[in-house]
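Make up an example, fold above all:
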Amino acid sequence: MKKSLKFAGLVLAVSMVAASLSGCGAGASSSDTFKFGGIGPITGGAAIYGQAVMNGAQIAVDEINAAGGINGYKIEFSFEDDEHNPEKSVNAYNTLLDKKMQVLVGTVTSAPCIAVVDKAKADNVFMLTPSATATEAIAQDNAFRVCFSDPNQGTEAAKYIGAKNLATKVAIIFDNSDPYSSGIKDNFVKESANQNFEVVAQEAYTQDSNTDFSTQLQATVDSGADLLFLPIYYQDASNILAQAAQKDIDIAVFGCDGFDGILGLDGFDTSLAEGVLLLTPFSTSSTDEKTQAFVKAYEAKCNGLTPNQFAADAYDAVYIVKAAIEKANITPAASNAEICDALKKAMTEISYTGLTGSDITWGADGEPNKAPIVVEIKNGEYVVLD
């Protein structure tokens, strides 16, 4: 019996030594596969966004792997649901770390991304969010984004409305409980001072009061506004459009990228969105070969569903990480800290042309430099405007 115990103790000691050696360079992978993670809402009210990102990213991963991978190394992609909930997003992040994630393509929405970015910084994990627009979402130097920031969207929307003489008086309905919505609104109002229109009403609501918009719509009418700016997500936008129609309120509407997805919302009468303008980096009506190939691939993967800009952002995000990895010449055997440090530098040295922009570059602040586009909803489709 004593001999058995002595042998068991020897085995345990050897195992502990092996474990300590394998922990050198924490985050390092012994495989020949890059492990990418993704986080976003694939259930709940914002599921259209998360599902689009998950599918768009997976198409890019499949294409890259089929073409030989990144410098010969394949990509393994895992996606976790956060239901657009910050606490659940942190839990999803921890799950991905348990799966040996080396690069995070996420998170999808702003509030969860804000919750995750500090933790990723502490863990030396590089993250590239396809679609989180809040300034705070990439507050750390390990974080970059593909999409426009809230300040950029608000500023560019105001400039476009002014340059095209779309309105003389603008009313805004925004979600005061959401950093995405309030951030865009603040910068829109700031830029409006430089334009040829006046902001005549700023009507707030929260997610605790997002079913009845009678007060906000009446204030819009009373203000004499000839354009309604909605820097909000498509679910609330669909309710506002429906309630405006019920009240026979006829007013031009301008939205941002959160509007994208409204045409695919179950039970929504898409005719209510006819004529709506929105700022977006992507449109399926673009005739370039790359866009049309992506649309075809997405529809094939997703039972005929048309991709939105979130899917395109995610597709580009994977290819952007690929370009940065190739620039940095790193392998899956590197630790997370080594990968993070190398990609932070490489991101400021690459230029990328994809579905959501041409010759996109990044500064050390993680912000992309690219031009926005505006689309109009016509006959149930997004049509690019000049």
Notes: The domain at 151-280 is CATH 3.40.50.2300 (Rossmann fold).
